[in-house]
Amino acid sequence: MASTWFALAALTAAGITNAAYSIATTSDIKQTAANVAWDLLQYYNGNETGQTPGILPGPPPAGDYYWWESGAMWGTLIDYWKYTGDSSYNDIITQAMLWQVGPDEDYMPPNYTASLGNDDQGFWGMSAMLAAENGFPDPPEKEPQWLALAQAVFNTQADPQRHDSTCGGGLRWQIYLSNNGYDYKNSIANGCFFNLGARLARYTGNQTYADWAETTWNWMRSVGFMDDDYNIYDGGHVQNNCTDINRAQFSYNNAVFLLGAAYMYNYTNGSDTWKQRTTALVDATLKTFFPDNIAYEIACEEHMSCTTDMLSFKGYLHRWLATATQVAPFLADTVLPVLQTSAEAAVATCTGGSNGRTCGFKWSTKAYDGTYGAGQQMNVLGAVSSLLVQEAKPPLTNSTGGTSKGDVNAGSHSDSSRGELRELTAGDKAGASILTIVILVSAVGTFGWMSTGV
Ligand SMILES: *[C@@H]1O[C@H](CO)[C@@H](O)[C@H](O)[C@H]1NC(C)=O
Ligand SMILES: *[C@@H]1O[C@H](CO)[C@@H](O)[C@H](O)[C@H]1NC(C)=O
Ligand SMILES: *[C@@H]1O[C@H](CO)[C@@H](O)[C@H](O)[C@H]1NC(C)=O
Ligand SMILES: *[C@@H]1O[C@H](CO)[C@@H](O)[C@H](O)[C@H]1NC(C)=O
Ligand SMILES: *[C@@H]1O[C@H](CO)[C@@H](O)[C@H](O)[C@H]1NC(C)=O
Ligand SMILES: *[C@@H]1O[C@H](CO)[C@@H](O)[C@H](O)[C@H]1NC(C)=O
Ligand SMILES: *[C@@H]1O[C@H](CO)[C@@H](O)[C@H](O)[C@H]1NC(C)=O
């Protein structure tokens, strides 16, 4: 009797365990990542007849996803390929990333003008940079090349037109004067620029990029968007000289800066300054965003007031912490155990939906929470695939095997004001105002309890 009961109990337990993914071995990690990637791509139909290559359904109100998130998804899938070796999606990644370059090959396609921020452009630029760094197959010669695309994004953002003197410098959030949010300078726009600068410096060895990264970091500190304790706040308005700081903290801000800092540490051959900055920012990030060592989007997760955008931040957090340990190996002992614990919680949420394996968002509950979307899948994909970071090659440079062709002048022929000249359609305007409403609502939602009294 007793032995039968135990056998049954063991079977039941096994049944329950099998319902969730395993990440116990390298082959489990690859299998899990493959399934999560497949489920992620169910949100993408850009490779079907009559659809637009490169984009998830959107931007709102046409679908849930703003343009930037698609750029982020291709980066997630490039990392997936790098970590697992599964090249099943490489062709659609390449098609997507080339379709969206825009007429000046700088990731400013006119279709998305109404919601085109420096951060949106920056996310596509960082995915192009990632392709160059990982030796992702180079596009045919006649097509734009990964490194040149990253340089084009960087160069358009380094242009004096994008850096006015309000708030003592820095990039505005939106690129075009006509967009809501043009009067806002924020951490993510400057973080993408910083990150690209640091990575271009390391890849090409050109100090100019590093100088821009240094300037951007110093500006973030001077304006108080990054405080003495390495908290990073969302941003502030130019009409207030950026002193009306929105104190909401989002994990992608920390992630984008800590990865850039780790690259600067590497580029400077392990300088004390960048070692100290990287260490402090990583420590602050683990403290704020990993309670109990599980990723937590502190500004919106408790009450599930996260927007579609915010539902994807944990993936960048995991991926960029992982990559940081490649270029700043001293971080590995602190960071990797946390990423492991967090990833275990992440996969425990993937038991939902009709397929029984849809991933949720509230990882700390270790159970499916009823939500689903490209963000949720992308987060888990990033967390699981980057568990293989120690088996992966570190990011390449031009002198260590990188083959992507650059162009230091890429983007310099871009007409930064094209958005002004082009008449906005009613659809564009609706898109822009919805964006603002979402931002206002989320700012109110998060401020209610986050504000420290500014
Ligand atoms: C689009 O890509 C997905 C994922 O690779 C694939 O399953 C699907 O067959 C493709 N669709 C077309 C029309 O090529
Ligand atoms: C822009 O929109 C048009 C019309 O929907 C579409 O044909 C084209 O592929 C889009 N281009 C990009 C870069 O999204
Ligand atoms: C990158 O390497 C190639 C081949 O060695 C060289 O021709 C090129 O000048 C290098 N580019 C930079 C920016 O260093
Ligand atoms: C370094 O980058 C800057 C900024 O893009 C560019 O103007 C300069 O020509 C580059 N220098 C070299 C040696 O490639
Ligand atoms: C605006 O902010 C910058 C950066 O904090 C500061 O250097 C500058 O003095 C401020 N200007 C005014 C007019 O307060
Ligand atoms: C890093 O070290 C290399 C090799 O000694 C040197 O060529 C390079 O200039 C150094 N880089 C910096 C930013 O100091
Ligand atoms: C820079 O990164 C490489 C990996 O690309 C690593 O081997 C090297 O140790 C790093 N440099 C420092 C100073 O940590």
Q: What is the topology?
A:
Blueprint: H1 2-19, H2 26-41, H3 67-84, H4 90-99, H5 118-133, H6 146-158, E1 184-186, H7 187-204, H8 207-223, E2 235-237, H9 251-267, H10 272-289, H11 313-327, H12 332-348, H13 374-385, H14 418-421, H15 426-450
Antiparallel strand pairs: 1-2
Bound molecules: 2-acetamido-2-deoxy-beta-D-glucopyranose (7 copies).
Enzyme class: hydrolase
Family: Belongs to the glycosyl hydrolase 76 family.
Catalytic activity: Random hydrolysis of (1->6)-alpha-D-mannosidic linkages in unbranched (1->6)-mannans
CATH level 1 class label? Mainly Alpha
Q: What structural category do the secondary elements indicate?
A: mainly alpha
Number of domains: 1
Percentage beta strand: under 5%
Any ligands, ions or cofactors bound here, and which?
A: 2-acetamido-2-deoxy-beta-D-glucopyranose
Low-confidence stretches: 1-18, 417-454
Radius of gyration, CA atoms, in whole angstroms: 21 Å
Which strands sit side by side, in order, in the main sheet? Answer: 1-2
Cα distance spanning the termini: 67 Å
Average of per-residue pLDDT values? 90
Enzyme class: hydrolase
Keywords: Glycoprotein, Glycosidase, Hydrolase, Membrane, Signal, Transmembrane, Transmembrane helix
EC number: 3.2.1.101
Subcellular location: Endomembrane system
